[in-house]
Design brief:
about 20% helix, globular
Length: about 260
């Protein structure tokens, strides 16, 4: 039986309740994606009415701290099952990860911890990355994996507008970039770079400290990714950054793959 294409979307909404009023509702209602993965939802399921959406399944992983972090998966496709978190108390208080099993693959929606100003949280960030990699490798023993979300790292200099001045800043420190490289060394593909290996200016986040001018001038960072098991390479059709979609300081990244 031939495979059919599925459209996936990942989007850090920086607060789903606020984002719904600023463009997210229109994006979701347009319904171009079969599966939508949201990060930094900053809410619990009973705080947001999504009954109007054309998605049959919603999986929430909210943080223990109210109004903080959190992830959500919306799906039109039936799921075989799902798990929340990494299965470790130290990592599972902030609602940062959802794993959904589909017939041909696992989908992992992740919101990687920020290393924080002065790299104050860098040691924990690196602990998280190691636990995250172990989780992915364990899943791959069963079937291929798609990973998406805000990984809070611009991997290479091409992935942000001002690499020289950000060398020691969170999201572009040497340690975080090396840790991200370990994700790829473990066998994951950075899907955008499969299709756009050398194209600069492809960003998914822009600071709001300049009142929106950073986005207008495209002075940004690529923090939001699709990663895929190498075994899925032949099924990956496209990866597109949707800079036309607003509602957050991030924008969605869409993947089309023949995995249906």
């Amino acid at each position: 039986m031939p495979s059919h294409a599925i459209t996936f979307s990942t989007f850090n909404v920086n607060g789903i309740r606020a984002a719904l009023k600023k463009g997210l509702a229109e994006y979701l209602e347009a319904g171009s994606a079969d599966i939508v993965c949201l990060q930094e939802v900053k809410a619990e399921a009973d705080q947001v009415d999504l009954s109007w959406l054309k998605y049959d399944h919603a999986v929430w992983n909210s943080a223990a701290k109210k109004g903080y972090s959190g992830t959500l998966v919306l799906s039109r496709l039936p799921m075989l099952g799902y798990t929340l978190g990494l299965g470790a108390q130290a990592h599972d208080q902030e609602g940062r990860l959802i794993t959904v099993e589909y017939p041909r693959f696992f989908l992992v929606n992740v919101y990687t911890p920020n290393a924080k100003a002065g790299l104050a949280r860098l040691p924990y960030r690196l602990e998280w990355d190691a636990a995250f990699r172990s989780h992915i490798l364990a899943l791959e023993q069963k079937k291929p994996v798609l990973v998406c979300g805000d990984l809070n790292c611009a991997h290479e200099e091409i992935d942000l507008a001002n690499p020289a001045s950000n060398r020691k800043n969170p999201g572009f420190s040497d340690a975080e970039r090396a840790s991200f490289s370990q994700h790829l060394d473990a066998g994951l593909l950075d899907v955008l770079r499969v299709f756009e290996p050398n194209t600069p200016g492809l960003y998914t986040w822009w600071t709001m400290r300049t009142g929106g001018s950073a986005r207008e001038k495209n002075i940004g960072w690529r923090l939001d990714y699709w990663l895929a098991s190498a075994a899925l390479r032949a099924e990956l059709d496209s990866c597109t950054i949707r800079t036309d979609v607003y509602g957050s300081d991030h924008c969605p990244v869409e993947l089309v793959a023949r995995l249906g």
